[in-house]
Structure formats: C-alpha cells, structure tokens
Amino acid sequence: MTEEFDLISIDSLLSDEERALRDSVRSFVDAAIKPNIAGWYEDAVFPLEIVPEMAKLGLLGMHLTGYGCAGRSAVDYGLAAAELEAGDSGLRTFVSVQGSLAMSAIHKHGSEEQKNQWLPAMAKGEAIGCFGLTEPTAGSDPGAMKTFARRDGDDWVLNGSKRWIGLASVAKVAIIWAQTEDGVRGFVVPTGTPGFTATPIGPKLSMRASIQCDIELTDVRLPASALLPEAKGLRGPFECLNEARYGIIWGAMGAARDSYLAALAYAQERLQFDKPLAGYQLTQAKLVNMALEINKGFLLALHLGRLKDAGALQPHQISVGKLNNCREAIKICRDARAMLGGNGITLDYPPLRHANNLESVRTYEGTDEIHTLILGNKITGIPAFR
Ligand code: TGC
C-alpha cells in the first residue's frame, strides 16, 4: 500500500514474502490488465489469453496444497484477490471460480482419482472449471434446486438447469450440484459429455469482461466415479462458497482502492474556480471518508485472513467481511465516479466500471440480504431466512 491511503500502516502487518507476492500480482495487473480492460469491458470479452500467465504466477488454486497447486496462505490469496480486482472484478472472479469453487470442490470433496485427473491441469490453466449451484428458480435458497441425478445401474443420469454459472462456456469441467434420493450431491462433469450445454448470458451491464452462463443438463450420463464422494448435503457446496466469499472480502477493497486512487489523482489535477478540486473541503471530506473505509476494510480482511490461516475462521465471520466490504466498496466507487464529474461515466476511468461490477459481487456468493440474515441469526439465535 502507499501512504496515499495506508493511513494506519497496514503494510507493516505484512511479511516481506506477503509484500513480494502482492507486488508481483500488482505488476501483472498493471502490465496485462489495466491497459486492456476498457476494451475487454466494452467488447464484453473474457481475455482467455491471460490465463497461462495467471497460472504461471501460481494464482489458480493458489491456497490449495499438492496436485501442482501453489500451497500459499489465505492472506497471500487475499492479497492477490485485492490486486486482481483492482484490475477488474471479472478477472478476480475467474480466479475465484477456478480456485475457490471448482478446484476446491475437488480438493475438499473429491476422490484421489478425481484430484489427480483434474487439479494439476486446472492449476496450469489447461482446464478451466465452473461451479453449478444456482438455478433459474433457486438462488439464495439452493436447497430448492430442481436438478436431479438418478441412478441407472452404476451410472448417474442428470437433468436440470443452472444459471449465472461463471466461465461455463469455456470450461472443460463443471462441478454440478444435484438432488438425489440421498440429498444434495456433487458431480464432476466433463463439459463435453453429451447433453451438457452452456450458453453465455447477455447483454450485461456488469462483469462485462467475464462470462456467466445458463447450463442445460439433458440426460447427462456419468459413470459412478463422477460423484464427489466426500460431499453429502448442502454443506458440500457451502464449504466451497466460504472460500470464494473469503476472496471477495479482499477483492472488493481492491476495486475500492483503485477507484479512490483514480478520484484522488483527478482531484489533484483538475482545476475549477482556479484551484484543484482536491483543495475544496467537500472533496477532502469525500476522500477522507473513502480512505477510512478502505483502511478499515483491508484491516478487517487481514484479520479474517490471519484467522483463516490459523484454522479459526467461522462462516459468520466471512459474512461480516463480505457484507461490510462489498457495501463500503460500492459506495466508494460511486463517490469516486461523482468526483470525476461527466468524465466518470466513460471507460477512461475505472470507478463506474468497478461500481457496476460490484453490483454482481454484492449479489453472488450470498447477497447482502443473506449475509445480513446469517449475522442476524448469529446475534439473535433466530433464523429469519424463511
Ligand atoms: P442450512 O440448513 O442452514 O444448512 C445446510 C447445511 O449446510 C451447513 N452450512 C454451512 N457449512 C459450511 N459453511 C457454511 N457457510 C454453511 N452454511 C450452512 C449447515 O450447517 C448444514 O449442515 P448439516 O451438516 O447440518 O446438513 O441451509 P439453508 O439453505 O437453510 O441455509 C440458509 C442460507 C441462507 C444461509 C444458505 O442457503 C445460503 O448461504 N444461501 C446463499 C446461497 C449462495 O450464496 N448462493 C450463491 C451461489 S454462487 C453460484 O452459484 C455461482 S458461482 C459463482 C460463479 O460461477 O461466478
């Protein structure tokens, strides 16, 4: 971090190795993402060509151990997520879907055969994965999913639909969650299996440099070995969502920081009534409020990351981080856009792009409302979900 916003020396809480990792991801984002993101966003393309570079940096499944994964800490993963999302939420989302959802489902719940078959290729970026939980009529309530897997001899046959599934149309493998006679189970589905189709959803006003898809499953026949043996019930997918939600805590602050720095630079250069905008008290109040929330947000992320590395992070604490940091980040990006005046509505500046992306980020992996209710339940002991 720099003194422009690290007002409380959060940097001093990081080790040399953590700072080095963060700086290497920041350099990658500055060189490979920032010069191109406006074009990718406008054209609504996910830049597949940068996947090998991300793999080379060890970003795919970076917090997983063995099977060709980098085995880095939760704090390292968080620092990387923040830097990637300072580039664009769509690029951080790719790393989250690949590492925290698809790879972590196989790593946590898979057989040795499944791990050996998929994880090394996924860590190298040779196989992209996706994670099919949400359905057209089951978003916040995944227990209402209709996708069903029935036994047919030793095989499984899957039928149903999934919606908002990141990267599905470019994925080689999909983790599909389905009802069975024994409750919700997970399946490792090669996307070339007959009956599997993935169609990008669009046009979108958010996450334009990313892909979200509808998936249709029509008599998708899988061998017995496709079942994730260790995932039984909704706990299976929720344990993966914890990983992705954790990354968002950091990522959202990366987008906020990038927006704040854009507004600060603009305010220092832009003259109105013969003085820089930054010299006006109203502008300084906005900048200070943004900087305070960014400092608090990163401190919260780091605290939760240290808990995670100590094996002590609880799901409701992840909700504290996701709810707070998404909520504050989107406010910061919108305020930054306002400080840029009319120029803020163009793709020449990042705040409105980040704010639009954060509309998705605050919605997926548990909406603001769901995380509020998880915390309401924690505080009162009364579940108010239904
Ligand atoms: P509930 O009865 O509370 O729980 C069922 C079982 O799951 C356990 N559990 C968890 N375990 C670990 N971590 C967590 N965070 C957990 N939350 C619940 C729970 O202990 C229980 O275990 P067991 O062993 O007793 O069976 O289930 P519920 O459905 O009533 O839970 C309520 C609620 C609202 C908290 C939950 O449904 C929820 O979190 N909803 C939000 C779902 C969500 O985040 N969906 C977004 C999915 S993102 C997506 O599909 C696209 S992936 C991203 C991309 O592709 O871009």
From TrEMBL:
User: Does the entry feature the keyword Oxidoreductase, yes or no?
Assistant: yes
Q: Give the catalysed reaction(s), semicolon-separated.
A: glutaryl-CoA + oxidized [electron-transfer flavoprotein] + 2 H(+) = (2E)-butenoyl-CoA + reduced [electron-transfer flavoprotein] + CO2
**What are the Acyl-CoA dehydrogenase/oxidase N-terminal domain coordinates in residue numbering?**
15-126
Which pathway is recorded for this entry? Amino-acid metabolism; lysine degradation; Amino-acid metabolism; tryptophan metabolism
Q: Which UniProt keywords apply?
A: FAD, Flavoprotein, Oxidoreductase, Transit peptide
Acyl-CoA dehydrogenase/oxidase C-terminal domain sequence ranges? 232-378
User: What's the superkingdom here?
Assistant: Bacteria
What region holds the Acyl-CoA oxidase/dehydrogenase middle domain?
Answer: 130-220
Q: Which cofactor does it need?
A: FAD
Matching Gene3D superfamilies: Acyl-CoA dehydrogenase/oxidase, N-terminal domain, Butyryl-CoA Dehydrogenase, subunit A, domain 2, Butyryl-CoA Dehydrogenase, subunit A, domain 3
- SUPFAM superfamilies on file: Acyl-CoA dehydrogenase C-terminal domain-like, Acyl-CoA dehydrogenase NM domain-like
Q: Which family does it belong to?
A: Belongs to the acyl-CoA dehydrogenase family.
The protein depicted here goes by the name: glutaryl-CoA dehydrogenase (ETF)
Species whose genome carries this gene: Arthrobacter hankyongi
List the top taxonomic levels of the source.
Bacteria, Bacillati, Actinomycetota, Actinomycetes, Micrococcales
